[in-house]
């Protein structure tokens, strides 16, 4: 088997020193553009690949970042991962995905990986920090962490998110505009901030339209399909059930629509359903789901860009979050009420 090409092989072929090759491969300004290009061409010709382990020992960097999520099985995270990875690869970083399944011990393990140098930074999408020393938010603020999509109130970490209140309000206004008055809400796991803000958007739209929210019209879900089934069942056991549902994510909306079909209630002629996320399955769902679309890949790119700024020595204050736009995609799961 041929030996792996080394920097000295490129140097011999190019007729320059090993130091010059090393600088050229690092795109140093100390090497002329012509020489840099010639050395890069020779590296490709020889199929040269840098020794990452040796480089990491020199720089004391792992050249890896963690993307930590609640549930790796949720398709929502796929486009976020694509955005994170595209930006990370351009900067020479690999992306490791961490799956907490809402387990506090797993959350601590991933933060310890970061603190111990097994990763250089983290994009956190769980909406919470693990407790340490009784301080829920402050203990981890010194670490290179960007919070994406979810919100951690009281944290000084930089955030990338959407306007959950405004997006939820727009979704409910769509139902009101169709003529619905009995609109219920299946929330996420309140009191987590993202779930609270989406619920606030629902309440705001109802209040501005002069509509009451009857007892039992707000039910707490868990962002899982099974939660949508159970919450829908509870809503349609009420003496006067709703004619429309605003559901805090698409996965629960799928569950709610499935339960409505099981009960013999047609979507949308009898009950309209609006979700939140615009998963790729929502177009293929029957009927296609009206839902709030989040710029998932852009969330990933923006969060990774912030993290790279931190890792390169830039100071990124928590301050005001970066807020990306959403869009309401109106499809076949909403219609005027039949009564």
From TrEMBL:
Keyword field: DNA-binding, Transcription, Transcription regulation
The name this protein goes by in its record: LacI family transcriptional regulator
Keyword Glycoprotein: no
Domain HTH lacI-type intervals: 5-59
Any one GO molecular function term: DNA-binding transcription factor activity
Annotated InterPro entries: HTH_LacI, LacI/GalR-like_sensor, Lambda_DNA-bd_dom_sf, Peripla_BP_I
SUPFAM superfamilies given in the database record: lambda repressor-like DNA-binding domains, Periplasmic binding protein-like I
Keyword Transcription regulation assigned: yes
Annotated TM spans: none
Xref: SMART domains: HTH_LACI
CDD domains tied to this protein: HTH_LacI, PBP1_LacI-like
Listed PANTHER family: HTH-TYPE TRANSCRIPTIONAL REGULATOR GALS, LACI-RELATED TRANSCRIPTIONAL REPRESSOR
């Amino acid at each position: 088997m041929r030996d792996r090409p080394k920097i000295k092989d490129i140097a011999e072929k190019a007729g320059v020193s090993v130091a010059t090759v090393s600088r050229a491969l690092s795109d140093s300004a100390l090497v002329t553009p012509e020489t840099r290009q010639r050395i890069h061409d020779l590296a490709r010709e020889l199929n040269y690949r840098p020794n990452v382990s040796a480089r990491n020992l020199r720089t004391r960097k792992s050249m890896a970042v963690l993307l930590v999520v609640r549930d790796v099985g949720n398709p929502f995270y796929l486009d976020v991962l694509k955005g994170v990875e595209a930006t990370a690869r351009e900067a020479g970083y690999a992306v490791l995905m961490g799956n907490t399944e809402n387990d506090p011990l797993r959350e601590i393990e991933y933060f310890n990986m970061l603190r111990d140098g097994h990763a250089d930074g983290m994009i956190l999408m769980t909406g919470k920090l693990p407790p340490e020393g009784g301080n829920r938010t402050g203990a981890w603020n010194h670490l290179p962490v960007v919070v994406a999509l979810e919100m951690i109130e009281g944290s000084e970490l930089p955030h990338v998110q959407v306007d959950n209140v405004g997006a939820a309000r727009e979704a409910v206004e769509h139902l009101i505009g169709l003529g619905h008055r009995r609109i219920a809400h299946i929330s996420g796991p309140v009191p987590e901030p993202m779930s609270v803000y989406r619920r606030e958007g629902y309440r705001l739209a109802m209040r501005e339209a002069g509509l009451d929210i009857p007892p039992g019209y707000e039910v707490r879900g868990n962002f899982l399909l099974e939660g949508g089934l159970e919450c829908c069942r509870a809503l349609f056991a009420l003496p006067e059930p709703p004619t429309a549902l605003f559901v805090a994510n698409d996965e629960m909306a799928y569950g709610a629509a499935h339960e409505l079909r099981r009960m013999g209630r047609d979507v949308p002629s009898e009950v309209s359903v609006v979700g939140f996320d615009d998963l790729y399955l929502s177009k293929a769902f029957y009927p296609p789901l009206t839902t709030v679309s989040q710029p998932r890949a852009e969330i990933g790119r923006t969060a990774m860009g912030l993290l790279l700024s931190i890792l390169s020595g830039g100071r990124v204050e928590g301050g005001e979050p970066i807020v990306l736009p959403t869009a309401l995609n109106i499809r076949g799961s909403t219609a005027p009420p039949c009564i």
